[in-house]
Amino acid sequence: MSRIILASTSPTRRRLLADAGLAFEAMAPGVDEEAVVELARREGSALEPADTADILARLKAEAVSSAHPDAIVIGCDQTLDLDGELLTKAPDMDALRRKLLRLRGRRHMLHAAVACAKGGETIWEQRDSAALTMREFTPEFLGHYLAGEGDDLLGSVGGYRLEGAGVQLFNSIEGSYFTILGLPLLPLLAWLRTQEYLEE
Q1: How do the domains of the chain map onto residue ranges?
Q2: φ, ψ (nearest 5 deg) of residue 198
C-alpha cells in the first residue's frame, strides 16, 4: 500500500489527520498561492473564491505527487468569500484588525477543498462550504481578542480559530466544524476507506 503524504505544513490539518488515526507524512507543497491568484487577475479571469480553493488544493497535491509518484498525496486549501470577494490572510495585526471590523455583523463563507493525487495527477477531489455570521462586537472586545490570541491568527484566512476564543466573534455558524478548520475531513476519510487505506 502506498504511503500517504499531506501536502501542508498547517498544524491544524496535521492534527486533524493525526487525531483521526491516519498514518502520514507532512511536506510543504511549495505552491505560491498569492502568485496563482494574481496571475488569474492579470489574465482577466479572476477566480471565484470557491474555485480558487479547488485549484490550489489540486496544485498542492500534484506538486508533491510529482516528486513522490508512488504516494497518495493530500492537498488542501481554504478561501474566505465575502459577497463574492476573495479575502486573503492578513499580513500583519493592523490589517487583521481592519479585516475583522469589515466582517463584523456580516455573513461570510469559508470554502475548504481537498484533492488527492497519485503519479502527479489528481484522482479525487471534494469541496465543502460553511457560512459564518459575525456578531456586532465592540472595538474594545476586538482589541482584547487580538491581544490575547496574538500573531498566531495571521496563519488563519479568517483571523480566528473556532477551537479557541475566536468562537466568541460569532452569532451563528452553518456547516461542518472540520470544513471551518480547513479540511473536509469526513469525505476524505470516506474516500480513503474506499481505497482501502482505512478499515471499512
Answers
A1: 4-194
A2: -130, 155
